[in-house]
Amino acid sequence: MYYSLFNDNVVKLFFHHDTAPEIIPAGIHQGVKLQGSLRHPEYGMLIGWFSCPTHDCNNEWDKHWIADIRFMEKVILENPHFDAFLNGTLLIKKVLPMYDGRYFIMRMKMGNTGAKANIFYLKVVQEHPVLTLVSQQNIFAFEGMDVFFEAQVKAYPYPWVSLCHILESNKSVIQRTSNVSSQILMKIPSITKANSGVYVLYAENAVGNDTVTVRVYVESIPGRSSSPPS
């Protein structure tokens, strides 16, 4: 396991030069680049990146370490969810719920003059569900086939998703699942003619909801009767 190159003396200097956090709003699953202020960058200057639950990292810097950068020289990075660059930039490849309310801290050791920090507070933006149908809007199937409903959903917080069969007088919930991050794949096994009709995929979270409608047509297999012999 790698430990940050920052030592205890740098930590003390860091607290002496503490700064207010910059709030960074971000959409779920998007990529975000964080770049601190480098007024007088020095070749080989040490930069450390940390992802912390508090602005002072609860004094557990190594536990929350992401990357060390020697400016324009070398990058040390072990976490596949991030990328870091020689100019000091940190890339969050994909914003996840676990990053909501996290402090991303860039600490810089400025030669013998002390240490500075840039603090970024990441806030994941709440979004109502948006459903995009991947499977066909009209599905044609023979009896006995498995029928799949596939869609993509983008939302935060992650939504509930239901598959409903719309009947003449009511609707029947076929499947329901929670905390859907992106892909939806639901199945009706061994479909029958009674399963023909209109289906609705419904996604909902605390912010709002969205629906997509699919029509399913079921036919008997040619040469096979759908009713038992008398």
From TrEMBL:
<dbReference type="InterPro" id="IPR036179">
    <property type="entry name" value="Ig-like_dom_sf"/>
</dbReference>
<dbReference type="Pfam" id="PF07679">
    <property type="entry name" value="I-set"/>
</dbReference>
<protein>
    <recommendedName>
        <fullName>Immunoglobulin I-set domain-containing protein</fullName>
    </recommendedName>
</protein>
<dbReference type="InterPro" id="IPR013783">
    <property type="entry name" value="Ig-like_fold"/>
</dbReference>
<feature type="domain" description="Immunoglobulin I-set">
    <location>
        <begin position="137"/>
        <end position="218"/>
    </location>
</feature>
<dbReference type="InterPro" id="IPR013098">
    <property type="entry name" value="Ig_I-set"/>
</dbReference>
